C-alpha cells in the first residue's frame, strides 16, 4: 500500500473484496483487518518490514478440530489396530488391549504413561519415510468418528482464509503446535499452504544410520525429544524461527506462553484465541475440558484485551464444504 | 526458463552475465551451472519444484573462514576478557586463567571440557536478547588476529555469489552448521541474506520465564541441548527443515553425513566440498587439521564424484573487498 493511501479508501477496497468471507463482521474481524493494515502501511508509525511479519498458529483446536481427542492420538489408535496382526501379544497387554477392545475406560486407567506407550509403538522404530507414508495412508482413508469426514477436511475455513490473507500481506505463517512435527508436515503444505520448514512441533529422537542397502536413513526412536507446548512454545519459536512473532493464534492454556511472548515484544502485536462455543457446528468446551482446556489463557486474554474469537458468532462457516 | 529454450542459448546468456564472477571457469563452476540449469528447466527430466529446491550450507570453513580457530571460540575468548573484571576469581582458575594470560598451551591442557566451560560462561546465564547484543557488539569491533579485518568480512565472496544465484533460481538457502544457532543468526541475514528461520545450528537449553519486570523472557542455560555436527546434521535437517536438500555444501568430515543424506535421495543431487588449498590468500589444511579436518569426506567425495572445490584454482577471489 502506497504511503498516503487513505484508510477510508483501504476500508472500501476491503469491503469490496472481502479477504475473510467466512468471518462475520465484528470485533475480531476488525482487529485482524486493522492490524494487517497498520503493519503493512509503509511510512506509518506501526509499519513492520516483511521479514519480521512472523505469524504463529497453534494447530489442534486452532487450525483444525481436536474432539473427541487429538487427531494424532486417533491415528495412534488406528495404527495399533492396523499393526495388531504383527503383534499377537498386544491382545493381553495394556494399553494395547484396551485400544483393540475399544475400552476407553481401560485406556484411561493406563494414564499418560499408556498414551506415551501407544505413541512410541506407532511413531518409533521405523524410518522417517515409513512414518510419513503411514500418516499419509491414514489421512487418505480414515474418517472422523462423528463428523464422518476425512480429518483433513475438519480444518477451519475462516483460518484458511486468514492464513492466505496474511501471506498475501507479506507475512510468513508458521505452525507452532504440541503435535508431532513429522505428523503435521505430512498435510500442512497441502491443507494450510505451510511448507515443512515452517512447522514447529514436538519431536522424538531420530538417529542417522547407513541402512542395510547402503543408503543413509533416519530412524525414529521410541523416545520423546522435545515437547512444544506451554512454556515449550516460546522456546520452540526461539529455536526454530529465531524471531518473535508479531501475531499469534491459539485456543488453549497450552498457548498461553506463546501469546505472552508474542505481546511481550515492542511495536504492534496481535494475540488471538479461538473460543470453542459452538456445540452445534463444532464443539463447545473451555475451562473444564481435558482436551484443549482454556482457562488461564481466557482470563489473561480478557484482562489484557487479546482478541477472543467466539466461534459461534464470529465464524460464518466453520469447516470447508465437503470435497466432491 | 521456458521449455524448449536450448541449452546452447542458455550457455550464451550465462557467459554474457556471469552470475558467479568470482568462480574461475572449471569443473566446479560448470557442475553448479549445469545443476541449476537442469533442475529449473520446466518440463525437463530433472525439473524440481521450487518448494523442493532446498540448499544447505555448512558455515565454518564453507561460508566464512575458521582459522586459527572457529570464530565463535575467539568470541568466547574475547568475552572472557571483557567479563573478567566482574569475575576476579577467574585469574586463578582454569581455563579462564589461560585465556586471560594468552596461554594457549595451558588452554589446550584443559581440553574439550575447558572449552565447554568457556562456552557455558560466555553463552549462558543471560537472556537471548542480551546474548544477541554481546555478539553484535563483538562483530562490530573485533578484528581477526592475522587478517586484521572484521570477522564478518572474512566470508567467501564466491559463496555469497552462489547463495544469491541459487535464490534467484528459486532455491531456499539454509545454513546447517555445528556453530551456535543464536550466534550465527546475529549476522546471517545481513551477511548472507539468510533469515534467522533458515539457520540450523547447535543450541543450548533455553528456559521461558516471566522476568522481574513482569515481561516474558528466554533465559539461556549453561547446558548443551543439540550438537548439529556429523550425524547430527541430517538429524537437524530433518527436524528443522523437514525436507531432504537437493544441494549441500560442506568442507570437513563434520559435513560427511549431510552430504551422504543429500545425495541419498532420488532425482538430481549436488554435493560440494570446499578444499582449503590456498595458504597464500586463505589457509591450506585438510587431513591433519584439528579444525575443519577433511579426510574421510575427501576420500568419499572423490570416490563418488562429488564436486571438490579447490580454493586456489576455482576461486578468483576469496574474500570480498574491504569495506570503505
Automatic annotation (TrEMBL), chains A, B:
Domain of life the protein comes from: Bacteria
Pfam families: HAD
PANTHER family (alphabetical): PHOSPHOSERINE PHOSPHATASE (PTHR43344)
Protein name: Haloacid dehalogenase
Organism: Bosea thiooxidans
Lineage of origin: Bacteria, Pseudomonadati, Pseudomonadota, Alphaproteobacteria, Hyphomicrobiales
